[in-house]
Amino acid sequence: MRFFGLFLLCFVGAAQQKAPKVALVNIQDAIVATTDGQAADQRLEAEFAPKKAKLEAGHKALEALQDKLESGSLSDDERHKLTKEIDDKTVLLNVETDQDDADLDAAQKKVLGELGKRMVAVIADYASKKGYAMVFDVSTSQAPLLYADDATDITQDVVAAYESKYKK
Q1: Each residue of 49-82: pLDDT tens digit?
Q2: Which of 28, 31, 47, 50 counts the highest number of beta carbons within 10 A?
Q3: What are the domain boundaries of the chain?
Q4: What whole-number distance in Å separates Cα of residue 147 and Cα of residue 151?
Q5: Which fold has domain 18-165?
Q6: 122: closest CA among 163, 162, 166?
């Protein structure tokens, strides 16, 4: 009987404990919202703007060639040459577009990797100080979180903590 009473006390004590605090954070939005994230975005924009302009000019040139081809005022030989030129320029433009996209993706991943490490450290410190047992990143659809009733979104709080820690 004494064992049963002890078991009941343990059960009641466990039932009275608070549920762990759970927080949500959108780490991508948090990184972009920081001063460092905005500066990195501006650097990337400045670095890749000339490439973007060149690609847009290439697309416009292709459109002009396509319009000329569709005008109907060309001989068969001219039409054949122009078609080959359009095909060749399209292939080159596609290769250049793919390469520029890959370069931009790599540059973005590098920036996110650098800033991400800092942000994760800030999130861990913030969560620890505020008593959160778990923090879920909801910035991607691949996150395993499906439902969180009592979760708190701490994204803006984390941005503020990051800014105060890394203020220049």
Answers
A1: 999 999 999 999 999 999 988 887 888 898 899 9
A2: 31
A3: 18-165
A4: 9
A5: Protein Binding, DinI Protein; Chain A (3.30.910)
A6: 162
